[in-house]
From TrEMBL, chain A:
Residues 310-322 have a biased composition (Basic and acidic residues). Keywords: ATP-binding, Helicase, Hydrolase, Nucleotide-binding. It holds the Pfam family AAA_30. It comes from Streptomyces smyrnaeus. Residues 310-330 are annotated as: Disordered. GO terms for molecular function: ATP binding. This is ATP-binding protein.
UniProtKB/TrEMBL annotation, chain B:
This is Uncharacterized protein. Residues 312-336, 471-511 are annotated as: Disordered. It comes from the Bacteria.
TrEMBL record, chain C:
This is Secreted protein. Residues 1-13 have a biased composition (Polar residues). Residues 1-22 are annotated as: Disordered. The lineage of its organism: Bacteria, Bacillati, Actinomycetota, Actinomycetes, Kitasatosporales. It comes from Streptomyces smyrnaeus.
Length: 465, 511, 388
């Protein structure tokens, strides 16, 4: 590399050496101090996958409420709002929490009804007086406030578009912005070239706009991923978070994945054993150009899931007695399949139903696109590589966020299914993207990130002939 | 590119002629569009070389600049352009209809209905290519901050009267052209490739001559041969047989013909200005003819059903601009503030979604693309079971079992939409996937307000209908703050909208 | 901005001297003999590289320095590229005007954009770089870079850099280089397209960034290069210079990788039949055979960057290659690569081999939907150009 800008948030050696729990706690204290007593109107927190973002949001919300500051919480999807409300009410059953929702049918998850302190309504006036009111950015945008809230927490702020923040920022005086910079960036279906590179490009992320206009705001990061195993944290950090590195909260050998039934000698079982052992597995199909719903690749994904269940997988981790504890069964709800496109997800679901019967356990497995898997966590994931069998590498398929989401959902292992030849495809990918004048973009390069992930996966390759 | 468009391109490549990708015309085409063919000077920013324009194909006006780097000649050219274009751009200002509009009363803050003017028609401008649209925008930008002698008596190089005004109109048209489905300013290559697929790539379709070669190849030639001739064919002097549709010229023309003629003009050779004029006109004329050939092809297509709805928005946009001019508001700023940019983006996204839906509803060939993508399906009704909602005033909620050969990407609870024969919308929810291709839907709207559904709103066994997973008239988002209420996250209020200063006139303006 | 002087990856490895000599000789043979001059790796060759890094034909001909324009002419498919003298004159005049004061304006813009203090013009070293021949100029540039004093500014006007490409030396001429007092180097590119209201054409900016990235690679090992270059352009509609920063990180990484692939020229050359070369003055049939003996990866993007594109397009079209219709049409076609195969698969003929491709089922559905829609609209579309 000709010249490398030192990552501004490089991990100090002392921090690297410290106990991950203490490092994470120190970061959290600093964030809370800035949020509760700091002089700035905004605080930005970068949180890599599984670094305890929700825990931080819940804690910050409770401490603000306890300090007598009622607050609004802005999340991006209804599922995120419901999850946050559930966590808040579980953490403190006495806390008066309001869930502001839309007037559509089934506007919120009925599980919230079991919390007596949670009040739900489509009208903000009904929720006046609640310590905390949580809703989506889209719903908040319809609210007009006589008096702005003193405090707000904006969750998933990197997935929020700048114009969505513009619509709600008048509702609060100061805010804590929390999000994961490595996941999928917001986008627009229409041309936005005329604003690209300008500080208030409405299609960029809320955090980009916020920092462009308020460069002096304190920026923190959560330094430890509690989700990703030691085998994954370094790769995901290097490839997708070059400017905000993080580490795993667990060490090598702290988590174990194993199968009760022995391997049957097939490549599918071999790659499962490799992934159980190393945390990564690559099931490589012969090179071929295929349509998106490549029947062989889809079939391989389904067989992997099927065999994992058939072989009675089990996991052991710090959650259930440690690496030598009794562990838990790797049930279907702890497995996910990730794809780039919806039709691929549909094809995988169909293949799973065929293999295991519609009511078989395989039907319980989550199969979805990267966009819909954002923020979710599983023990084992099976990923259909976005570039598998493709004749070209489009910007959509190269987007770092997509690969980052797919490669960072697992607590134990990730198995990637891919046609051979992706490295060559990347090498032949034209590098003619338009370039804007201006400051350096903190996003990693999709092309380099893909190469890094491929290089790592190549060490755990099993060929399916 | 959708697989269906790719397939149309393959058909075209195989048969040597363009193939349709639309069965109706999805853009408004005025009875008398203003066709504008501009050329610019290579290497100069916003130095026009000439333009051919008019609404009558047999009587175009041609203006040229004998020395494009001479500021006075450029201003004289722009002055004539303004005199030629403004009568057309202003021609629809006065014939209005009165419409009702919701507005926020500035005193009470309440939404009230007011009567407003809406221009009955709006002038349409057609240019050859996408870069031609950009050039209109650039011309607008270069003119709207100029000052005339009347506005600024001390100006060293005053612009001719009406030049800044033309700049504001062109800026408005250029900005409107960014709105999906708008038709005030369109490029011919864009229009033609929206409706036909050629046997070449989208990149090659940017060449108007090559695109038309596939649509109407001269006798005996296949599309590919005719396109090649349009791209590369040269005469004995090395000049292109089909000059580029602009705004850039062919370097061989610049070097071999234009530069010597301009040099003669610079030396004061008599008749040199006329020589440059004729040279530039010779480059403009073939494109002028091509533009009208394109207009003819488009006219042969019947207009799509939703085009008048969208054209009404163009008329609104035209009327708003007229009102801003009449209110003597300052020219459009160089850059949008945060609120304006967000409003524009929200509006364009809504228009895009609306356009996508309307094109599909208007055109079975476009709906086919959505059906193949699993976003719509054609279904036959197998069974209808009447049901009602719970509550004090039960409403009809019939359950309709349908069967389709299509493969929609559906999951439980998904909302579905269809257009009733009356044009009204109906919504349904997916209740159950009953079997392969078989779905049970619950109709939840579009049946009137009564206890029993209005006649014709509930399908019958054997009916065929097209359901879409996308909304047909997507709602706009919430309001945004006024610019003066821009929050701190977006830099705070932009301050008083001070009049933008004109571009400084410098000695370096002209080399 | 901070910079690290430690290269994270090793620079492109030069081949051993003996091999290198052999490669140089082999490449000269490919050009048609030692007397045929080597074409420099100019901006167009770099653009062609970026637009189609996977094309072996382009890689070999550009790598060997073959005059592709002459080859295209001899093949009967001349490239339509040319430059208008108006653009040329304007570009040269702008660069001359910007440099007229000995670089004061350039340094002022650089300081404005990097936040450095503007130096007193007397405190700036402007070394003399003229010499006979490119090797001499490159040597002078190298010396000037090595000798640049710590603690003061050095401005290099029209330096010449040498870069090992594919086993031979390519000379590159940045518009200017500035050595900062901290010892780092900024690349300065002067372009005649405007920066209008703070933004410039992103396609042109992208090309400038790729060009600057090659200079950055050529500077490797000499001095630490700042990863943002300064782009100097006319402001708005004037001829006044203004600047903007160009971020090079991604371009450097991509170009480095692409240039490494160029070092595999020997492999491509080794697959050529005995005695094949690309001298434009040979028998047209022999030249055609020579060009056809290296596989090409044509795509329509080549048309704006590669002199041979019209020749390659002609071949791709006659072979019925689907990519002639655009890279994006291939997305859902699976292993089907020709128009005939696709149409056969779409027609549903079960006897055709194409019907067995996994893409065939979707193609059949697509063709059926298309036929259904066209039939439904038949009367309406009759006057269209498709009716014959």
């Amino acid at each position: 590399m000709t010249a490398i800008v030192e990552p501004s948030g490089a991990v100090a050696p002392a921090e690297r050496a410290a106990d991950p729990g203490r490092a994470a706690a120190a970061a959290t204290e600093a964030i809370l101090a800035d949020t509760l007593d700091g002089a700035h109107r905004g605080v930005v927190v970068d949180s890599p996958p599984g670094a305890g973002k929700s825990t931080l949001v819940v804690r910050a919300a409770r401490e603000l409420a306890a300090a007598g500051h009622p607050l609004m919480v802005i999340a991006q999807t209804n599922a995120q709002v419901d999850d946050l409300v559930d966590r808040l009410a579980t953490a403190d059953p006495q806390l008066p929490v309001g869930r502001l929702h839309s007037s559509e049918p089934r506007p919120y998850d009925p599980m919230l009804d079991r919390h007596p302190s949670v009040r739900t309504s489509a009208k903000p006036a009904d929720l006046a007086g609640q310590d905390i009111v949580v809703s989506t950015a889209a719903k908040w945008a319809w609210v007009s406030a006589e008096e702005p809230w003193r405090h707000a927490i904006v969750d998933e702020a990197y997935q929020m578009r700048s114009d969505a923040l513009l619509a709600v920022a008048g509702l609060f005086e100061r805010a804590l912005f929390v999000g994961d910079p490595g996941q999928l960036d917001p986008f627009s279906q229409v041309g936005v070239e005329q604003w690209t590179g300008q500080p208030h490009d409405p299609s960029t992320s809320a955090v980009s706009t916020l920092l462009a206009h308020n460069p002096a705001l304190p920026q923190h990061r959560l330094p430890v991923s509690w989700r990703l195993p030691a085998s994954a944290a370094e790769l995901v950090s290097d490839a997708f978070y070059p400017y905000t590195p993080f580490r795993s909260g667990t060490g090598p050998g702290d988590r174990r994945l194993s199968f009760a039934a022995p391997a049957d000698g097939s490549p599918v079982d071999a790659v499962l054993d490799e992934a159980a052992d190393a945390g990564w597995g690559l099931l490589e199909l012969p090179a071929a150009r295929t349509p998106r719903t490549d029947p062989e690749a889809v079939g391989a994904v389904a067989r992997l899931v099927h065999r994992m269940l058939e072989r009675e997988g089990g996991t052991r981790s710090e959650r259930d007695g440690g690496a030598d504890g009794p562990g838990s069964a790797l049930s279907a709800d702890r497995i996910a399949v990730g794809t780039a496109h919806r039709d691929q997800a549909a094809a995988v679901r169909a293949a799973l139903a065929e293999l295991g019967g519609v009511n078989g356990a395989a039907a319980e497995v989550t199969v979805d696109t990267a966009n819909r898997l954002q923020g979710r966590e599983f023990d084992v994931t099976v990923v259909l590589h976005p570039l598998s069998g493709r004749p070209d590498a489009t910007r959509f398929h190269l987007e770092t966020g997509r690969l980052c989401v797919l490669a960072s959902r697992h607590r134990h292992a990730c198995v990637v299914v891919c046609r051979a030849g992706v490295a060559e495809l990347l090498d032949e990918h034209p590098a003619t993207e338009p370039v804007q004048l201006g400051p350096v973009s903190p996003a990693p390069d999709g092309w380099e990130a893909h190469q890094a992930v491929l290089a790592r996966l190549a060490r755990h390759r099993v060929r399916l002939e | 590119m959708s697989l269906l468009s790719a397939l149309a391109r393959m058909e075209a490549a195989a048969c040597g002629r363009a193939r349709p990708v639309a069965t109706v015309r999805h853009r408004h085409l005025a009875t008398n569009p203003l066709v504008l063919v501009p050329l610019t000077t290579a290497g100069e920013n916003g130095a026009p070389l000439g333009v051919m324009l008019g609404t009558d194909r047999s009587a175009p006006e041609v203006f040229t600049v004998p020395q494009p780097r001479d500021r006075d000649l450029r201003f004289a050219f722009l002055g004539r352009l303004a005199e030629a274009m403004l009568p057309h751009l202003e021609s629809c200002q006065d014939e209005v209809e009165l419409v009702e509009r919701k507005e926020t009363d500035p005193e009470t803050g309440k939404r009230v209905t007011v009567e407003a003017e809406l221009c009955a028609d709006a002038p349409q401008v057609l240019v050859p290519t996408g870069p031609g649209v950009d050039f209109v925008r650039l011309l607008g930008r270069s003119m709207r901050f100029r000052r005339t002698a009347e506005e600024d008596p001390g100006a060293e190089h005053p612009a001719p009267p009406r030049v800044p005004l033309l700049g504001r109109w062109l800026t408005h048209y250029g900005e409107r052209a960014r709105v999906p489905g708008s038709s005030l300013l369109l490029s011919m290559t864009g229009l033609l490739s929206r409706h036909w697929a050629t046997g070449q790539s989208q990149l090659e379709d940017q060449h108007l001559g090559a695109l038309l070669a596939w649509l109407a190849p001269p006798d005996g030639l296949g599309g590919a041969e005719a396109a090649l001739r349009a791209e590369l064919g040269r005469d004995a002097r090395g000049q292109l047989l089909v000059p580029p549709a602009g705004p850039a010229t062919d370097p061989a023309f610049d070097n071999e013909l234009l530069a010597p003629a301009i040099a003669r003009y610079d030396k004061g050779v008599p008749g040199a200005a006329q020589e440059v004029h004729e040279l530039v006109a010779s480059q403009l004329r073939p494109t002028w003819e091509a533009m009208w050939q394109g207009v003819d092809l488009l006219r042969a297509l019947p207009e799509a059903a939703h085009v008048p709805d969208r054209w009404r928005r163009d008329r609104q946009s035209y009327t708003h601009h007229r009102d801003r001019l009449r209110a003597a508001e300052p020219p459009q700023p160089r850059r949008d503030d945060a609120v304006t940019a967000a409003r524009k983006l929200a509006m364009r996204e809504q228009r895009q979604a609306e356009l996508d839906a309307q094109e599909a509803l208007d055109d079975p060939l476009v709906m086919a693309v959505r059906r193949l993508a699993g976003e719509a399906f054609l279904a036959e009704v197998l069974e209808v079971e009447m049901a009602y909602s719970d509550g004090k005033r039960p409403s009809p909620r019939p359950l309709v079992t349908v069967h389709t050969q299509d493969v929609p990407l559906l999951s439980d609870g998904d909302k579905l939409h269809r257009q009733l024969p009356t044009g009204a919308q109906q919504r349904a929810e997916l209740v159950e996937m009953a079997g392969p291709g078989e779905y049970v839907l619950r109709l939840v709207g579009g049946m009137g307000r009564g206890k029993e559904p209005a006649p014709g709103t509930v399908p019958e066994k054997g009916d065929l209908m097209c359901w879409t997973l996308f909304e047909h008239a997507p709602r706009g988002g919430p309001g945004l703050p006024e610019p003066e209420e821009t929050p701190w996250t977006h830099g705070g209020p932009p301050g008083e909208p001070s009049a933008e200063r004109p571009d400084p006139v410098t000695a370096e303006d002209v080399l | 901005m901070t910079s690290s002087s430690l290269p994270k990856q090793t620079p492109p490895q030069g081949t051993a001297p003996a091999d290198r000599q052999a490669t140089v000789q082999r490449l000269a043979e490919l050009r048609g003999g030692p007397d045929v001059p080597q074409r420099p790796l100019d901006a167009r060759a770099l653009a062609a590289l970026a637009a189609n890094p996977g094309c072996r034909r382009r890689a070999l001909l550009d790598g060997a320095g073959v005059d592709k324009s002459a080859v295209a002419h001899a093949l009967g498919s001349p490239a339509p590229f040319g430059q208008s003298q108006f653009a040329l004159v304007r570009g040269n005049a702008f660069e001359a005007a910007v440099k007229a004061d000995g670089g004061e304006v350039l340094l002022a813009l650089l300081c404005e954009h990097t936040g450095a203090a503007r130096p007193d013009p007397a405190e700036v070293t402007v070394p003399q770089l003229t010499a006979d021949g490119p090797a001499g100029r490159a040597f002078r540039t190298r010396q000037a870079l090595i000798e640049a004093d710590g603690g003061r500014w050095t401005l290099l006007d029209h330096p010449l850099l040498a870069l090992e490409v594919a086993g031979s030396t390519a000379y590159l001429e940045p518009d200017a280089l500035a050595v900062h007092p901290d010892g780092t180097v900024s690349i300065i590119e002067i372009k005649s397209f405007p920066i209008l209201d703070g933004s410039a054409d992103p396609v042109k900016v992208g090309a400038a960034a790729r060009q600057a990235a090659v200079y950055a690679l050529a500077l490797e090992g000499l001095r630490t290069v700042r990863e943002s270059a300064l782009l100097v352009c006319p402001k708005d509609f004037s001829n006044l210079p203004t600047g903007g920063l160009l971020q090079l990180r991604k371009q450097i990484a991509a170009t480095r990788r692409q240039l490494r692939r160029l070092t595999r020229l020997e492999e491509i050359a080794a697959e050529l039949p005995e005695g094949v070369h690309f001298a434009p003055d040979q028998e047209p049939a022999a030249l055609t055979a020579a060009v056809e003996s290296v596989p090409a990866a044509y795509a329509p993007e080549c048309l704006s960057t590669c002199e041979l594109a019209f020749h390659c397009r002609d071949r791709a079209r006659s072979a019925g290659d689907v990519v002639a219709l655009g890279r994006s049409v291939r997305g859902e076609l699976g292993g089907l690569t020709t128009v005939d195969e696709v149409l056969a698969a779409a027609s549903g003929d079960p006897d055709n081999a194409a019907a067995k491709d996994p893409a065939a089922a979707t193609l059949r559905r697509a063709a059926a939907l298309r036929a259904e829609a066209l039939a439904a609209a038949e009367p309406a579309t009759a006057p269209g150009p498709e009716a014959r």
